[in-house]
Amino acid sequence: MCNDLKHSFNKIIEGNNNWMEFVKNDTSGRFEQLSKEQHPEILWIGCADSRVPANEITGTKPGEVFVHRNIANVCVHSDMNMLSVLDYAVNVLKVKHIIVAGHYGCGGVAASLSRNQFGIIENWLCHIKDVYRLRAAEIGAIEDLECKTDRLVELNVEEQVFNLCTTSIVQNAWKNNQPLAVHGMVINIASGELINQNCTFTSKESLGKVFAYK
Question: Is 127 a catalytic residue?
């Protein structure tokens, strides 16, 4: 292993040693409890970007947020990974809130506005291009590229929230009177603010007849 790789890897080990020391000296008993079970009230579906860690942004502790992350916080009905996380969070952990969290300056969203090819990720970015297609008139009218990208970030969050709400997992939870809210939020990395997009759903009533199951 070259020196650069060895140095960066050793930093990981050093960081873990510091964490173990912190856990050992904690007298609250919470880590002993966490080793046996978890009871998070939040499922966070966010971007894989290294700048947007769920716990730090929400000020929560280990055990309080169940997390799924992918490129550009996409939620599609064919993604068994996301659906498996969603099913476990809703039906086993009984979370009360699902947050879809996008962020300004998202590289995945920016790439979806480009005609360039980036590799296999192009197939994933097509889901975001679909959002652009649905709102092309609005997004196309924005001339500044950064503003255009940020607006698509917001619209992508709204679309992924809707996608989650149309899953049988979420709708059956509502059908069984399980308290569950699905929220869309956007992170401003520069300020740290988590911005509510005001697209919260707590029932199937506003989904429309085609999407709301009986």
Answer: no
DSSP sequence for 112-140:
HT--S--STHHHHHHHHHHHHHHTHHHHH
**Residue 104 one-letter amino acid:** Y
The verdict on whether 49 is a catalytic residue reads yes
79 belongs to the catalytic site = no
Catalytic residue among 49, 127, 151, 199: 49
**Catalytic: which of 51, 77, 126, 147?**
51
The model's pTM is 0.94
What are the CA-CA distances from residue 205 to residues 52, 174, 175, 209 (Å)?
32, 10, 11, 9
Q: Which of 2, 7, 30, 47 is catalytic?
A: 47
Is 30 a known active-site residue?
A: no
pLDDT in tens, the chain (214 residues): 788 899 999 999 999 999 999 999 999 999 999 999 999 999 999 999 999 999 999 999 999 999 999 999 999 999 999 999 999 999 999 999 999 999 999 999 999 999 999 899 999 999 999 999 999 999 999 999 999 999 999 999 999 999 999 999 999 999 999 999 999 999 999 999 999 999 999 999 989 889 999 8
Given 75, 106, 165, 199, which residue is catalytic? Answer: 106
The single residue of 68, 103, 127, 183 carrying the catalytic annotation is 103
69 part of the active site: no
Q: What is the CA radius of gyration of the chain?
A: 19
CA 29, CA 63: separation in Å to the nearest integer? Answer: 13
